[in-house]
Design goal:
By secondary structure, the chain is of the alpha/beta class. It is built from six helices and 14 strands. Strands 6-5-4-3-2-1-14 form a seven-stranded mixed sheet, covered by helices on one side. Strands 7-8-9-10-11-12-13 form a seven-stranded mixed sheet. The radius of gyration is 16 Å and the shape is globular. The protein binds nickel (II) ion (NI) and manganese (II) ion. The site of nickel (II) ion has 6 residues, from loops.
Length: 227
């Protein structure tokens, strides 16, 4: 039993947790960095961090095809129900729930969350997963915030952080984030999707590994990392 994370490009992740297949922020259609397509991926659970189009992405179509349960904040879960998705579970920031795959807590994220049709997407979130004896923090789209220190106190095996700048933390703030989070492993995402998010992940990894004890794993879209 283990956790296997696959980066599909931008902020789209797959996570095999034990026998459960999770899909996070499934943006394939219109994603120039996507390593696969929405009709090819499997999902038992779809996690949506916030309402923006590059995170809601193909979630409705994938949930319809696979019958996966959509997990998000209460406003976004309600929006999925309005799209005809029967299995949607709403949580809110700071609240956790024990799913068949593990305990999932919604964490603070500093960002926006309007849905693609202009509906109110509530507050944006990150995810803290406790499963398979591991703790994984998916920051979502966020700027740097001091309470990352509190999240780090949980003892993280892996943190997945945006480094693209402009819409989220850039490399400098993501380095400061790694110092607060003190995760054993770090994976950067939300960069190199478009020219606007161009970053040198290898250079960032060198800085992180010089200044912290975290090990950085740079993935190419389609590549995986196992805990
Ligand atoms: Ni966003
Ligand atoms: Mn985004």
């Amino acid at each position: 039993m283990s956790i296997k994370l696959t980066w599909y490009g931008h902020a789209t992740l797959g996570m095999k947790v034990g026998e459960h297949q999770l899909l996070i922020d499934p943006f394939f259609t219109g994603n120039p960095a996507a390593s696969t397509t929405a009709d090819k991926v499997q999902a038992d659970f779809i996690l949506v961090s916030h309402g923006h189009g590059d995170h809601v992405g193909d979630a409705v179509a994938i949930a319809r095809r696979t019958g996966a349960m959509v997990i998000s904040n209460a406003e976004i879960a309600g929006w999925f129900e309005k799209q005809g998705i029967e299995k949607a579970h709403g949580q809110h920031l700071g609240g956790g729930f024990m799913y068949p795959f593990g305990y999932l807590k919604l964490t603070l994220a500093l960002h926006g969350s309007a849905l693609p049709d202009g509906s109110n997407g509530g507050n944006p979130a990150g995810f803290l997963l406790t499963a398979e004896g591991k703790k994984v923090y998916l920051a979502g789209d966020t700027g740097l915030f001091g309470d990352m220190k509190l999240i780090g106190e949980e003892g993280l095996d892996l943190a997945v952080l945006p480094i693209g700048d402009n819409y989220t933390m850039g490399p400098d703030d993501a380095l400061r984030a790694t110092k607060m989070l003190q995760a054993k492993n770090v994976i950067p995402i939300h960069y190199n999707t478009f020219d606007l998010l161009k970053q040198d992940a290898d250079a960032w990894a060198k800085r992180v590994e010089a200044e912290t004890k975290s090990k950085v794993h740079i993935l190419k879209p389609g590549e995986s990392f196992s805990l």
